[in-house]
Design brief:
This is DNA-binding transcriptional LysR family regulator. It is built from 6 helices and 5 strands. It is α+β, with helices and mostly antiparallel strands.
Length: 143
């Protein structure tokens, strides 16, 4: 089975041009990246690099697998962007229960600060619902 993480690693090595540069980008040691490549070679039963006096020479198998790694990276990046866009457009509801005096004096500045910190494309609506008259409290929903 082909591990998408290993494919992404090969694409990163190809992009950076060396194991050391890829290790630096991943915040790993070069030895850790070398171990992962060796594990991939054993798992796929194909050499991915041939060591020489000036570093590693890449094989055709590694180039093929790295191209699939780029596809995995692109799909992963697209999924992350779409999820962030979806989460940014979700309608959230904030329920606040308070006494009328507190609602009159404390809620306006708090809601103004909330609106400035988390702006929405549509203006939020505020709904008041008086609770039982015996408690003298109100409930509001800000959507």
């Amino acid at each position: 089975m082909v591990d998408p993480g290993r494919l992404r690693l090969l694409a990163l090595i190809e992009r950076h041009g060396s194991l050391t540069a890829a290790a630096h980008a991943l915040r790993l040691t070069p030895a850790a990246v070398t171990q992962q490549v060796a594990r991939a070679e054993r798992g796929w039963q194909v050499p991915l690099a041939v060591l020489g006096p000036r570093g590693a020479t890449l094989t055709a198998a590694r180039a093929l697998l790295a191209s699939h790694g780029r596809t995995v990276e692109e799909a992963s990046g697209k999924a992350e962007a779409e999820l962030a866009a979806l989460l940014g457009h979700l309608a959230l509801r904030l329920w606040i229960g308070t006494f009328k005096a507190a609602a009159l004096h404390l809620l306006p500045p708090a809601l103004t600060a909330l609106r400035h910190r988390h702006p929405t494309p549509t203006s939020p609506s505020w709904t008041w619902r008086p609770d039982a008259e015996r408690t003298g409290s109100v409930r509001g929903a800000w959507t």
